[in-house]
Amino acid sequence: MSYIVSEEKKGGKKENPAFICGNNANVHQGNNRIMPQGYKVIMRKRDMQTVGKTDEYKQLMMVQWEHIRKKAYAVVDSSPAGARDKIGELLEADPDLDIILVDLPGSLSSDGVFKTIVNMDYVLTPVVADRIVMQSAMSFATAVLDYLKGKPGIPLKDFLFFWNKVDRRASTEVYDAYRKIMERLNLKVMETVLPESRRFDKELSVKGKPFFRSTLFPPPPKLLKGSCIDDLAEELCKILNL
User: Fold this and answer.
1) Is residue 95 within 8 Å of 32, Cβ to Cβ?
2) What is the set of domains in the chain, with CATH numbers?
3) Can you give the pTM of this predicted structure?
4) Is residue 14 pLDDT above 50, yes or no?
């Protein structure tokens, strides 16, 4: 069992790529997972309504069920302060979960964020090559990790950073410089890099348009190709020994 906080820093994609990554792992890699979140609850309701109105998605749901033989992962509403208690309730109901992904705001000003973070196993943080974003992310991570020193009873193991919204045509000089700084700070940067792409914003539509972001389905193979979401899911599963 792994508890993961996905912490969205300023400048990250609004759909949170960690959420799409987890969805992909749920279907293609057989992991059981639950996500206590706020706006994802609204999105799940919207997805269910869209599926109910669209024969194409109903058929896709049937095909997915025949393939994995399990329901879509649960999305549970919770405040940051109440996340740990909610997780306890979820585990009592289903002790066989592999991953619980908690989506938190990227600010300590929200009540309960720090307490929830230090009680998780990992903090998964997408970052972009922006000075303000990077300074905020690195200073917060180093402060938390320094706080953990001499406190072996705290569950948090590490921060896992990954590059998001990367323009592959641009020079890698800035990214290389930040990577060296993070290495000096002993901050772990995942190998997978997510590109800048409009595909990440595409949701289910009653018109049956191509989608990428959904709480019910993983991204279709055609759109998944080149997105690196599958690579991110695989790398994360290796880190978690799943």
Assistant:
1) no
2) 2-239 (3.40.50.300)
3) 0.84
4) no
